[in-house]
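Progress note, project year one: complex with iron/sulfur cluster.
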Amino acid sequence: MNHAELAENFIKDGERTTWHDETLWFVRKKRDLAAFQIPEWEALREAASQIKHNGLSHMHEYLIAFEEKATANGIKVHWAMDALEHNQIVHRILKENSIAEIIKSKSMLTEECHLNEYLIENGVDVVDTDLGERIVQLREEKPSHIVLPAIHLKKEDVGETFHQHLGTEKGNKDPQYLTEAARQHLREKFVSRKAALTGVNFAVAETGEFVVCTNEGNADMGAHLADVHIACMGFEKIIPERKHLGVFLRLLARSATGQPITTYSSHFKKPRPGQQMHIVIVDNGRSQQLGREDFRNSLKCIRCGACMNTCPVYRRSGGHSYHSAVAGPIGSILAPNLDMRKNADLPFASTLCGSCSNVCPVKIDIHDQLYKWRQVLVKEGHVPFGKKVAMRAMTFTLSHPGVFKTAGKMGRKMMGLAPFTVSNGLNPWYKQREMPAPPKESFREWFSKNRNGQ
Ligand code: SF4
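Model obtained:
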């Protein structure tokens, strides 16, 4: 199903849609308050954008420098060309250590690569330890937001899921009670599992260290207790120097949730004695995106989710309607790079209001890229046949004044005499709207009667 069809499913529950919309708008407002408290906010955004620009322009050198430093620190560095190779590397590390159970903290890259499914198919038990991710995992759903994976669910839904899977009291939806149940359930996994997988928020070329940000401390708990720590990152996570972290860490938490700082911003530089630390650096289409002049800036993304929280379409259509690991405006400019045909609908799921670009902490021109993707997709032939024909007809009509005039007259007549020709189920606009009564005359006719020559 495409975005419009999936969104139609989501909005059937009007109350939930309004609640989803308001909840995300609340997060957006928190972001505004946090940002406005910093006089140098715009300077920080500009600095972050420039640092990322430098990173993208010298990607090769920074990645090589990172590998050298990380290797010297005792970390084993692996390179994966695509999702499958990434999954195979992770599986191989587990097999080499005879490990068949793993805990994971939040990593959108592993969602992109469908790692959980791959490992489960290969006999490995995977437990997500971020609370939101664990909730959606128990429900066999995908995260609907990159920072708030279970934002589409209400506490009643979570209460029911925990009752079914963790044996909590039926009907109990008290957040404290449910969180405590999750803590007990996950604590047992943390202490018993031998391998932990984390994502990477920033990888520092200068030092070979990487930083993982969480509010729950689950990445730290997993990585510190496990014998094998595997960290997975898309190559765009690289930043040149450690001092640049100050810029990104200040922007990330404020943009994501309106907090001044993420609760845990943990630096991993080397394995503790006896521990193995691996880092898997993944391309999976990023080189291609880097080579697309109009879209390379999308690789600056630090996955804060602010563009989703502000987007009127995302807020009222839900993350699952984007049918891709990363939803919302940023997902809609990343996904077509991975599969143009499958994701051709996503750049059209936007009003192009520009709010996403306004809040983006690394100043990605998101709405411009959405617009540019539309042009690419039309050129490559990835729009429905009916739309293509209609657009050609419209181009012809709008570029011939005589045809435009006649078509307008006929259209007004048809709408008056036979309104069902436009007000029917085949017209997607009609599904949500009342068609207005046609005016008696066109603006051109009114103008020549009332204003011409004045
Ligand atoms: S595109 Fe910008 S606003 Fe959206 S998630 Fe990425 S960094 Fe945040």
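The CA atoms of residues 75 and 277 lie 5 Å apart.
DSSP finds 22 helices and ten strands in the chain.
No further modelling is planned for this target in the current period.
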